[in-house]
């Protein structure tokens, strides 16, 4: 998209509405406008709700087993988390958003900050970006079928508030709220809008800080903005002052154009049922290690150390067991074979036949760029060996991206995994797996 005329900078926050539930409805039109919830790992808790489910009063984080019968009687539909689908739709969403803003910071799987310039001064109303936001929403809906909300303001914290106001339909916040787009920087008087946002809903305000504010009569975003800076600095330090300055329209949190390099990469899961034998634990650790290695290669990093951890159920009382083991690699690597050779012996050290395990994980540490490799005198590796291994990993990753995760995998990961994450209501990953593409029968 063409750069807007020079003027005041505006920060935009684009947020997918009920993202997981919206992705599920996109793949199955029968779910549109129906009450739908998406569950967490092992079908544990509710982590996403459609608008219709929200209207029924269903709360985030509710354990599914506690409300299953009641929601079934009310006709609420259920889906297990389909991470392959959500990640792919997130990438598509961010690709579209890059066309609409001058700079983009991907903040989470369904949120991104953008930077652009207002086309004119605020006094004549030409700087209002509401129409721009509406066009963006229509374009995302047309190309991806996903609903988004757009908040526009002078700073990141204000953009977060504006995004919340854009979703605030039916909450008595006045004209302009709840329409999917809200430009806080274009309103004549922002104070009433800031008063409408409770202190608990201000970005960066946690539970304890919200309680501290309430005890001092600071109940909303406007009151926090007008709180004496010295008092806030004494309680929160420079972080609190930056938050207050952002509320005042002074940008203190610049867009992160390039994400910071990761210091650790972790893959962990709870098992669908406790593991009480070593072969299954080895399969789980191998599976998580290979997944972590894929992430590492995508991040263009190598790991210099690896940690494996295990634990039993925390509800076992006195029989609770948790342990971890770490190994330093002689040669930093992102090769699945090298990482498996390091991780599997650790799994054997951690296994306790008298302690059924509920969870395990692998943490890759001492990460460094893949372009830097400090060789080891006692572990020779020629440039040709390195090139061949890197080419092999690229082929494996390419096949798994094209035909679906697990198309090519290591034998140590096993074929039948009774411990694998429970996802009884899993939908198709039709955007990333050829086998999941819907079949259309044409009648002559």
| CATH fold group of the domain at 265-413 | Dna Ligase, domain 1
CATH class of the domain at 265-413: Alpha Beta
How are helices and strands ordered from N to C?
EHEEHHEHEEHEHEHHHHHEHEEHEEH
Mean pLDDT over all positions = 88
Q: What is the SS-derived class? A: alpha+beta
Share of helix among residues? 25-40%
- CATH architecture classification name of the domain at 265-413: 2-Layer Sandwich
The unreliable regions are 1-7
Computed over alpha carbons, the radius of gyration is: 25 Å
Chart the SSEs and their pairings.
Elements: E1 9-16, H1 19-27, E2 36-39, E3 46-49, H2 51-55, H3 64-73, E4 77-80, H4 83-98, E5 103-108, E6 111-117, H5 130-144, E7 148-153, H6 156-166, E8 181-183, H7 191-195, H8 207-215, H9 221-226, H10 229-236, H11 238-247, E9 265-275, H12 278-298, E10 301-311, E11 322-333, H13 336-350, E12 357-365, E13 368-369, H14 383-403
Parallel strand pairs: 2-4, 7-8
Antiparallel strand pairs: 1-6, 1-7, 2-3, 5-6, 9-12, 10-11, 10-12, 10-13
